[in-house]
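Lab notebook page, bench 4
Experiment: in silico fold of construct C2
Operator: M.H.
Input chain length: 650 residues
Purpose: comparison with the prior construct
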Amino acid sequence: MAPLDDKEKLLDSPEVLQAYCKQLEAELRKERSHLGSLFEAMPDMACIASTDGYFKRLSTSWEEVLGYSQSELLSISYMELIHPDDRESTLREVEQQLAGSKTAHFVNRYRAKDGSYRWLEWNTSPADDGTLFAVARDITARRDEERQLLLWADAFRYCVHGLAVGDPATNTITACNPAFAALHGMEAEEVANRGILDFYPAEVHPFVLSCIAQLQEAAMVSFETERCRKDGLCFPVQMDVVCVKDAAGVPIYTIASVQDIRERKRSLEERCRLETQLQQAQKLESIGRLAGGVAHDLNNLLTPILGYAEMLEMELAGNAGQQEEVRAIQRASTSARKLIWQLLAFSRTQTLELGEVELNAMLKEFGEMLRQSVGSGVRVEFELAPSLLPLHANAGQLEQVLVNLALNARDAMPSGGRLCFRTSFEKLSEERDGLPPGRYAVLEVADTGCGIRPEDMPRIFEPFFTTKGPGKGTGLGLSTVYGIVRQHRGNIVVSCPEGDGCSFRVLLPLLDEETAVQKAVEAAPAVLQQKVLVVDDNDLLRKFTVQALNMKGYEVADAPGGEEALRLVTKGLLKPDLVITDVIMPGMNGWEFSEQLLRLLPQVKVIYMTGYASDVIELYGIPENGRELLYKPFTIQVLMEKVQSVLQRK
């Protein structure tokens, strides 16, 4: 092409000018072709738009991103494709473009053919004729990734567990979240670049390093250990550590999660304690049922032994030698009866007559007795609550509790020591140690003795368990205490650090309403010629009862069960004034028998014989009101007093 300086020559020669124009057109077509190829080759979305709101030209990337064809895009106003929330801001940008400004990184959303919206980032430039040249980049995926990164950053920042990122090459912490720093009493800036082992007690460093070394093979390692705060306090933690590696398997960084498990450990210890307590209670309950059953059977055997010994003593009046032999039988039987009472107390099937007892007053009255029982080598002290502590209890049984605990303390202090009886008031707002919410009197008996070995603690309330030598204890002292306390709807808790004394803490429900105290009925002379029917499946006990009543002048018949007794009555062979029946018998029990009998003889009076407690008797349907109970084992005198009392009652 000729230079511009030769313009006059071109004008002088039309042929040359024509050739020049053709050459220029060819070069322009070539340039346009190059620009078109560049336009289409751009990975971003290039376009030329007019001021009337339509595209003039689009690169093929638009079709790929939005899914529309070129013809569809050129026929639609680009404002229709823009998200409604972005149109106003886009119009402002167009106006600024037409005013001559340039825009970089302007963002809006375009609707794709499938209805979804794509985020586009724009770089635009206006031409002199108002045409806009623009390049848009689809940043939808990038924005999703940025949003995901923000979510992960927030999860890292706000996670309640401590999180830290470590450099496995240097074993240092590169970053942590606020929870991690707070766990250690520090700020996040203080944690950065600190050594990983700086936060562990020195004694666990080998263990921690061995756990971290497992990350060479494993993707994650979990372990429990201790960590240290800035102030030196150590606390238990659950560690979960993950190692992130590159494609070649080389560690890049580690992520550690730290959970403070102090509360978890406390809960686990409490759960274990409650499970142990439940197992112990179930064990004692099983032993108690066995002891109660054995004691009931022994009561049936002891009743005739005591009764016949009493008869024999009366028959041997004037023979002092033989009477002494009979009394020896009576003493042995009485000792056996006391042993049975202890078993019944442990099994909570002993019959208790309850009345109003003030705990502080009892301790004051019984104080001298307690001092004498432990001996002069033990200093006995009383710390009594200023307020009254009224109980619905059996005074004799509570005295038994005091004596047994005092003797147990004495045996733990062979060289002397201090024994303190302390009372107080406590209100439980929620269930604790098996006791419902309510008001309780607290009796604490504490000594300065040798304590109890941890391995013996689970067994101290078992009957016949003792740590004393042969002949120095029956093993029934504490089991009796346990049974009496539980039968009074209370609980006993033991705290005995080995070598640092022992404390028994008894909680008993306070009396909220006045309870009438039963008065003993004075014995009256025998009412002769009255008919008595004795019903019991135990032949030995039944025959003794019949013989004792005959000896006192009563007309007596007997039957081994309720069915046989009813047959005697229905056949008219017997019309008794009084029936003495056992409660628990094979077939028809005592209550079922008495109900049927009272339909036949409404005026007949009934006495129920039993070796069980009143709560057990109620299981057999015998109501508390109006019932007359005769507890085994009984003597002839007790039998006569009960019979005379019931017969005289209208």
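Observations: Confidence is low (pLDDT under 50) at residues 513-527. The first strand starts at residue 45 and ends at 49.
Next step: discuss at group meeting.
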